[in-house]
Amino acid sequence: MTAANGQAPIFILGMLQRTGTNHLWDLFALHPNVETAAPVFEDHLVRWAPHLVAYADDVSRGWSPEWNVPPEEAEQLLRHLGKGVQQWLAQRSTKRIVTKMPTVEQAQHYFSLFPDSPLVVIVRDGRSVAESGVKSFGWSYERAFRRWNMAAEIVLQLQRDHGDRDGFAVVRYEDIIDKPGAVMRDLCVVADLDVDRYPIEEVESLPVRGSSTLKSDDNEAQLHWAPVERSGSFNPRERWRSWDEHLHRRFAAVAGASQVALGYDLEPVDGRDSVRDRLADLRAHVDVRYKEQRVIAGRARRSLRRVHGRI
């Protein structure tokens, strides 16, 4: 453990928004040895890791081959940059800090930067995420399906590359809801926390934060993240049950392989989409791809401005 207080922070990454990062954050915070990183409610640390990777690469490229610098020095430089980030998190408390972010963007760099920090990734049924995103944030279904699939592919690659690694776990949101006590016992082991000190009896009564059911169709209630007592009707599992066959077919076409690979099922549907539906799907796909490319181009322009500003 290398953070300022001698204890590495615990990182939570949700595969996407609407996957339960807030709830898991609150569950970890029940442990008497854990404190949240508030008021930094979403840390963005892994998301922008490529800047640190690029820095280490640029620095090491300036080392002359005649110096015979061992190749592991560049890796050590990157790791120590990560330690600085860990210390920034840890300095806010003498307890273990738990921090979160609802995206797995750039998570392939995580273990190069933070090999000593536990990582918990939350996944959720893609149909539930899509429906919640549409209702909560006004996403289009096409955008929701594509974003979920891209995130799922990153998580699956992390499992392939690091699945046997200590201090790493992928947990299903549905399991957190159905059996929170058992999940948290397992995650305490992953995070190197004293299981016996975890208040299992408190997990069932933990309030809900950020549920899409807090936002009504007529907008009389606005989505918020203040704790709300869980009602007896709270059921985040099957928000997609109102979908028609066209939505099920489109989800299967865009994200079906990832859905199954993460252990979720697909709703069997018969028949084919109409020409009108297929044309609407094509237009939605082109629109989403165009917006994605604009985001990528914008990030590239900002990076170039930073580089030219330093020259």
What is the average per-residue confidence, as pLDDT, rounded to a whole number? 86
Question: Strand portion, in percent?
Answer: 5-15%
Total of DSSP H or I helical runs spanning 4+ residues: 10
Order of helices and strands: EHEHHEHEHHEHHHH
Shape: globular
The helix fraction, in percent, is: 40-55%
Which spans of ≥5 residues are poorly predicted at pLDDT below 50? 212-221
Q: What is the terminal separation in angstroms? A: 37 Å
What is the topology, as strand order, of the major beta sheet?
A: 2-3-1-4-5
Strand tally, please?
A: 5
Question: Would you tell me the structural class of the helices and strands?
Answer: alpha/beta
Largest sheet: 5 strands, parallel
Radius of gyration: 21 Å
Short description:
Helix content is 48%, strand content 8%. It contains ten helices and five strands. A five-stranded parallel sheet has the order 2-3-1-4-5, sandwiched between helices.
Task: Fill in the keyword field for this structure.
10 helices; 311 residues
Outline the structure in words.
With 311 residues, this protein is α/β, with parallel strands linked by helices. 48% of the residues lie in helices and 8% in strands. The chain has a 5-stranded parallel sheet with strand order 2-3-1-4-5, sandwiched between helices. 33% of the residues are buried. The model is unreliable at 212-221 (pLDDT under 50).
Strand-helix topology:
Blueprint: E1 10-14, H1 21-29, E2 34-36, H2 49-61, H3 72-90, E3 96-101, H4 110-113, E4 119-123, H5 126-137, H6 141-162, E5 168-172, H7 173-178, H8 180-190, H9 245-261, H10 275-310
Parallel strand pairs: 1-3, 1-4, 2-3, 4-5
Helix pairs in contact: 2-3, 5-6, 6-9
